[in-house]
Every structure is written in C-alpha cells, then in structure tokens.
Amino acid sequence: MNDFIAYCGLDCEKCEAYAATKNNDDALRAKVAKLWSELNNVEITPEMINCEGCRRDGAKTVYCSELCEIRRCAVGKELFSCGCCPDMEKCEKVAMVIGSSEEARRNLTDMVPAAGYSASDPFMDMAIAEAREGIYRDHGGPFGTVVVKDGRVVGRGHNMVLVNDDSTAHGEISAIRDAEDNLDTHDLTGAVLYTTGEPCPMCLAACMWANISKVYYGCTIEDNASIGFRDKVFDRMFGGRKAFGDYLVELDREACLKLFEEYMSLGRKTY
User: Of the listed 78, 92, 130, 172, which one is catalytic?
Assistant: First the structure.
C-alpha cells in the first residue's frame, strides 16, 4: 500500500496541506488554515499547516496529529490503516469518508503492505498472500490456504475465526468450502491443498473428507504452538501424524516462518 494513503483511505499527495508543505506555499497554507478552522470550529493558523503524510514519518498538521478521530483511533489500535480494522464497515467516522470517495474505499481494500519475502512455490506464495490479507484485517491467525486442481487454483481462503466468531473457520476449511462452491461438488478428488501452517486435526480430517489428494504445509505443528496456537495439544490427543505418511509434505517453511514473525509483530490476539 502506498504510504501516502491516509488511515482513512484518502491520498495525502492530493491534499492541499501536503502540497503547501512540499512547495512551501504560504498562500495555500493560509487558504487551508482558514478552511480547516471553519470545518472544525477551532483556530488553525497557517503556521500549523505542515504535513508530510498521515501515516508517514515527519511533520503533521495539528488536525492530523490531534484532531482527527479516525487517525487517533487507528494509531491507538496499532492498525496499519482502517482497512485492517474488522469494524471498518460499521464505523460511522470512516463511513463519512469511504461513503463519499470510492477511491478511498479502494485504497483501504488494498491495505496490505508489500511482503519482504516470498515462497519458492507459486501456490504456497498465494497461500501466504491469503494469510497476510487475513492478519492485516485482524480476521484471525496467519493461516492461508489455496486448493489446486489440474494446475489451477479452484479455492482459496484464510483464517476467519475472530471476524466470524466461528472456531471452525480455519484457513483450510475456508478454502475447501470455496473450492466446493466454485466446482459445485463436495468431492475434491485429485485436488491438492497448500497451507501456511500444518493442519490441525479438524482441518486434516476435513481434507480427507473432501478427498484432497495431498497437503503441502509451510510451518509445522510445533511452529504453530510457538506463536500461541493449541494445535500440538490436540494433535497429541489424536495420536500424532505417523499414520498419514507422505500425505503431508513440508514446503517453504522458511517463508512461512517469516509470515509468522510478521503476524507476531502486529500484536494480534491468539486463541
């Protein structure tokens, strides 16, 4: 996401306060100060109009740094942008912006920053992208999945436990449901599943019920446990993985570990 995009989705490069700062335009500063004073019913002087971007390092106008309720909320929640907030569509303050600016809405939809890492396998890379969309929207854990059949992606999904209040909404389940809906069948014979974390017992059983032919996973059950998830506890209760042989294949673990590190840096809730 362009770092000139504000928390609310507006483009700071198109803001007159930014233009006045960039061009050191005192006449434009005076114009902006007058307008913003009237809109906010507070005194804003031309000297206060210095801004290098809402989400960027550097100078901020007094409106951005102190008065903007949207920015204060997003910063307080440690969000990358309002697009990462699960309550975005219900937020009256953000609705005032995205309701009148389709561009702002599109900007927030594309709120995931570029990844500084990638998987060697293209399908695992897609699974990572799914997971990153979920963690930046605070939908759930760092678990993304794609289902592939005959060399093409037929289903995709990510963990949505928190946003849906659904303990079964794991990435694998979401992707299997998507694939079955897209193919209009309950039988995914011949399909292969790629997922960023080794499936929990529930998801592993779902893969088998769906007749998934093979599962490629990034991080291991132990890795899942290291970031606070309880897969390992349940796995012991169900007898471990030995019976599955080569049905489960580790792939691109290093890239998926970086995904886990990124997830942990966001300070998200585990469950």
Answer: 172
Distance of alpha carbon 224 from alpha carbon 228, whole angstroms? 7
Per run of 10 residues, the mean pLDDT along the chain (length 271 residues) is 82 92 94 89 90 87 86 83 78 89 84 86 96 89 98 95 94 97 97 97 96 98 92 84 92 98 88 78
Report phi then psi at 12, rounded to 5.
-65, -25
How many CB atoms neighbour CB 267 within 10 A? 8
Catalytic residue check, 69? no
pTM above 0.70, yes or no: no
In this structure, are residues 178 and 147 in contact, taking their beta carbons and an 8 Å threshold? yes
Tokens 């942990």 map to which residue? 264
The Cα 192–Cα 150 span in angstroms is: 9
Residue 245 to residue 255: CA distance in whole angstroms:
24
| 25/5 Cα distance (integer angstroms) | 22
Q: What pLDDT score does 206 carry?
A: 97
Residue 1 confidence (pLDDT): 52
Quick one: pLDDT at residue 48? Answer: 92
Structure tokens at 217: 């996973």
192-197 and 152-158 beta bridge pairing: unpaired
157: β partners? 145
Q: What is the dihedral of CA 39, 41, 46, 49, to 10 degrees?
A: -60
83: Cα within 13 Å, side-chain hemisphere: 24
**CA–CA distance, 54 with 181 (Å, rounded to integer):** 41
The two structure tokens encoding residue 265: 């840096």
